[in-house]
Structures are given as C-alpha cells and as structure tokens.
## 1
Amino acid sequence: MSQIAASLLGVRTDAFAGLHPSEMRGPTVLSGGSRPKENNASEIDPILVTARSVIFYIDRQRLGRDCISEQLASQLSKWTIKPLASIRELPPDEDWSEVSLVILNTHGVSLSTGEVADEMKAIAETAPGAPLIVMSDLNDATEVHTGIQRGARGYLPADLPFPQVVAAIRLVCDGGTYIPACVLAAASAVQRAPLTRPTDENGNPIHFSPRQLQVLERLKQGKQNKIIAYELGMCESTVKVHIRVIMRKLNARNRTQVVLLTNNVHCGLAGACAA
C-alpha cells in the first residue's frame, strides 16, 4: 500500500458514522467500483455535465484509490473527485478536455516505465486540456524532471504533508506549477556537477543560440521581460519571442518549467552550448 494511503488511513474514518445519506452534505466522491449508491442516480451522475468541476484521481490500488479520494473530497469541496483505476475507464466518445485536473498516483513505479508512460500518454489524449499532477512514493529529482518533461504541472512525493498536498492541488488548478523541495536540493548538487545540455524526449541535445542563452540566464534570475529587454538592448517583444522559442524547444508550458528544465545549463557558455 502506498505511503500516502497509509498516512491517511484512520483519518476521519468515523466522521459520518450513524448518519443517513441525506444528512451527508460534504463533498461528493463518485466511485467507479461496486459501492452502493446512496443518492438518486440522476443526482450524482453529473460528471458529463459539470466536467469543469471534476478532478479525476487515478490509482490502480483500490485501497489507496478509495482512501485518498475520500480525503481529497473532504478538503476540496469545490470539486467532485472521481476515482478511477485508469483513464481508459472513461467513455471514449465524450469530451473530457475541460476537466479541472487529473491526478495520477504511480506509488513506487518509476515514470520511466512503459506502464506509467502509456497511462500518461492516454491521459494527454483523453483530457488534453486538463493539467496533470503526479503522486509518487519516489522522492527523486530525476522523477520530477521526467514528469515535467511529459507535461505534468505538479509532482507530489509521498512524504509531503496532506495540507501541502491540498494546497499544491489548488495551486495547479489555479494555473500554477508545483515543484517539490527535492528538486532544490538536487539543483545545489548540480552546481558542483559537470555541465550538461538539456535533451528532448528522444534524448537529443537541445541547442540554444547565444542570444537565447542570454535571455535564459536572466529568466532564471527571475527578471521581468522589460528588465531583460533593457539589459540586452532589445525590444520587449523580441524578448517574448526568444522566451516562446525556448519554451517550445523544452516543451515547457511556463517560465517555471523553463527554469526547472535548464537548472544544469551554464548560460555563460553561450558559444559552447549553441555550437
């Protein structure tokens, strides 16, 4: 059983003891299992109609799926939590592009395995407009990098306190990106490691022009576009063009992902990196 699931067992297990279903006014968990329905089916089958308020929680382990989805529902009342064993359980002829969020719990399985890669690919194809968060027992910076490169907007390691898990989910739903602390520790180690180039999904080195590296260096320093333009003597619109090109090369969705994916690139070596 997942460390996350284990940490949640016993929490609020008797919260609804003795209550009639009509008295349970808390958030809704839509289960795909054999659990008997407590409300009229026409009342809790709104997932096709209210996709924007739905979060899919995907977990192949039934115990973890039930436990974690119920705990998420207790804290995320704005959304309906729909637990699934796989994204492939959804009707393929429906439009899931406006789902609020997809959470994939891989437990101790690496994102580099074919099983997880196939599921992430299926998620991207089934719900292309939905942000993705990965939950994992592996608190490893390499796993985080792999997740971000494959389009994830957040990575939640198993040792993350539950209130922080909830806060990270809200952040991603609001358009943000969550990167765990293990990446910061790895970044410090990278500064002492040999310099390497970022690579694309096929392992090929990504090349940047000297001008792009100058923009990237200032982007990693957290500088605004107008400051970058002033320091490099170019128009702000030109800076935006360079940033878009950098994001496209890295397959990054925002500036945060650009910084994460290039934290081992020494921008001062413009000639070497651009060669």
## 2
Amino acid sequence: MVLVVNGGIGRAFDDLTLNKALCESEGANVCGVIVNKVEPAKLEQTEVYLRKALSRWMIPLIGVVPDKADLGQACVLDLERKMSFRLLCGSAHRLRHFSKVELVASDVSRFVDDLTVTSLDTESSGTLYVFPSSRLDLLLALYANIGDNLSRSVVLVVVDPSTKDKYSDEIKRLSSVLDNRDDALPVLLCESKNPLDVVRKVERFTAKLNVEDIERVSNVVSHYSQHIDFAVLMDAVLSSGSD
C-alpha cells in the first residue's frame, strides 16, 4: 500500500504515523509515501525532513508534489453535473474554467468600469460572475462592454428564486435574448433565494477530475509526473507483492 498525505511537515508526519499503525494493525504493508499539495516554498525542506524520518521505517519517499492552485479549478460542466445548475446558453464553453467568484450588485456604470480594468489584465484567470435575476441590466451591460480577453474567460450565473415549473419573467426574458446560441458566453441558472449563498456554495465546491475535461486532466498528469519517481514506485509495489 502507498500512503498519500497532504503537505506540511509536522502534520504530514503525524498523519503518516497514525495511518501506518492502522495499516499494520490490519496486516497491510506500507511500501511507499507520496506527500501531496506541499507549499512550493517549503518543498525542499519537506522532502529532506520526511525522507530522513521515513528512513527509520525503511519506507521510501516516492514523491513530494507542490501545490498548484489552478489544477483544482472547476469548469461549467462541473457546476451542471455536481451542483445542478442549468446551462441557458454557451454550450460550446462547457469546459471553461474559473478561479474567482464575484457577486455583482453594483450600479451599471461602476460594473462597466470594473470590467474595463479586468479586461486589461491579460494574466487574469477566469471569473464567475453571479447576478440576481432582478439585475439583468448588469448582465446585459457585460454583454455590451465585454472585450476579447473577457469573452474567453467569463462564466455567468443568474440566481433566480423560481422553480423549474415556473420561471420568473426575468429568466424568460433573458432566455429570449440569449436564444440558446452556442457562440454565446456560458450562462448558468441557479435556483436560490440568496445570491450570496450561491457564491459561498461555489467557493466551497471541490471539483473532481472527469475524463471530458482533457485540458485539466493533461495539466494534472504533467504536473504530478514531474514530482513522482515512478521507478521507485514500481520497485516498492513489486517488492511489497513478493513479501
């Protein structure tokens, strides 16, 4: 068995000690350890300390993987499948990722000014904007003022308190404007009475890998393959199997 623990030094070693004892009590042989999501600044320190600590148990350290925040970014499809949001339009962008979530409740002019500043940031990652359905003027302002940079990174969520059987007049009007165009920005509908609750819910959401999100899966494979010694892993597993 290979144990995987989250980053750190003291906490990681405490977790290893506890889980190693549990595995041994059940007759499982721990043949290696991988430390995941280590703060990049503490990568070398963590590796040196844990390699020395594990040597006392004759257990190899197979890898120490630095944390990389963008690997955990959710996409539109995740919100559809795992959080039951309904995609109103923009189906061509179901795999668009976002890293920031913002509740939009300002006046139109201020929101347009903020969009102008954001559009100039070419390094900015995707942003998910959450609108109450009563403020479709803000959503339409975004459509009218969006630049090329934002058009490639924006995800929109409209929060409406109505049920699936009876959508509000605002949502019906929005659907008629967007007309389910595949080239439109991705716009999702979430049924809730409180837009702030939706923001908090999305911020707490942890997106799991899915095979359709090829970009994210490829980035994860590339990142982890650089920090895991697969030769040591195979030796450890084969040696464990021969005991």
